[in-house]
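Try it yourself: sequence plus iron/sulfur cluster, in.
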Amino acid sequence: MDSILIETEKLDRPQEECGVFGIYGHPQAAPLTYYGLVALQHRGQEAAGIATTDGTNMYSHKGLGLLTDVFKHGELEGLSGYAAIGHVRYSTAGANTLQNAQPITLNTHARNFAIGHNGNLVNAKWLRIRLEQEGSLFQTTTDTEVIAHLIAKAGAQDLTEAVASAVQQIQGGFSVVILGNDELIAARDPLGLRPMVLGQLGDAYVVASESCALDTIGAEFIRDIEPGEVICIDAQGLHASRFATRRARKMCTFEHVYFARPDSDVDGWNVHAVRKRLGGILAEQYPADGDIVIGVPDSSVSAAAGYAEASGLPLETGLIKNRYIARTFIQPSQELRDVGVRLKLNAVRSIVEGKRVVLIDDSIVRGTTSRRIVRLLRSAGAREVHVRISSPPYVSPCHYGIDTASEGQLIAANNTVQEICELIEADSLHFLTVDDLMAGFGFAKGDAVPFCNACFTRNYPTALIDQSLSSPHHELVHVGGATVGSL
Ligand code: AMP
Ligand code: SF4
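Structure, out:
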């Protein structure tokens, strides 16, 4: 795998993949938030930030890069207080600016608050146009600032009510954490597209995108935050209420397939266990004449273990990943391309030489990485490379916060499986079907499932409101001559 090139390609993909964390009622709120965010670093490496409150003042620090880059000069010490929120961000294309780093802090006549958000809204552009017409001035290009302005404009005395009013207006995937002067508020989208959990550390309450963050700081898992739920934690304790009526859940399967950490439990399913079952299903449905099974590190290691177990083939470590390459690493020049190819991932020649390799990967999005991995294995002497993918063909962009590469860039949207096999230069290729994927969660064909599979099925669980708007310039011109309601 070509690390540097892969990372660059991924920068081309507009994404709002992020991790959020919040804690209330602990004297070490900032350091614990830092450690919680370290556990969520896989959810975003472009920017990080923490905001705290001591009940009188709010403090914040954010910057570009990994947590270790952003908090390397003792900045944590300045973040005093007993409550905090934090954020790690996976940048949107072309928008990796400090301005877009989170948490965003807002000081209005009514209140001060900080906000961090994971997910992508389907009506953010629409709302932004409305807010701008009503006089709101935007500093960033994030959906998060739209939510912040809605909270600021809500007018309610109570911050929780203001948040509830704001999240009732937004649509799409979101897990948000909001820090007030003396309260922490968390809300999860009504379909549960993005994950969020609640935990406890002594008397302190903790919220986080994934349960691995709770484990890391020694907090006890209490429960997943319900879709459509808003939770407020203050000196009186925890108050949970709903901002949306209960409806069928549509949790993101791609969190399980690729994004979440294997040691996390997301909505009751352990990510490693799901991936391992998917690998087992792959082996049963799509056997390969191979000598060894290799998973692409790190996200496909669990599925490879499941494939090996079910097929009886030996699981080998045939690809080694260098974990110390930050996304900000300088890209090698054209002449040094081959170095770049092997910087992040290298094949172990003594393992793969002369072997028929069954290569397990969790997904093929654009196909460029897959082709490079196949080539890498062949150049290390692999005799055959049979690719098995532990998810269905990724045919349609995500609008809820995972990966919004345009349809034209998605290899499976434009090619048959046989064509993809040829394009990635594999000897054979198979994907799971959506039914196979659901079987990994224990569902039978035809069952009503609590999952979003839109990137595999094109069946989106919400209207895609902003899709009917065109470029930002065009929108503004259009709005000038129309009422917002008609947009
Ligand atoms: P490609 O062959 O270029 O489509 O890349 C496929 C690889 O990218 C797989 O190894 C996946 O684990 C990984 N991948 C899938 N989705 C994403 C994403 N949203 N961001 C970064 N990497 C991803
Ligand atoms: Fe997850 Fe795919 Fe749905 Fe996006 S479209 S929320 S990636 S399942």
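One thing you can check immediately is this: The two ends are 44 Å apart (CA to CA).
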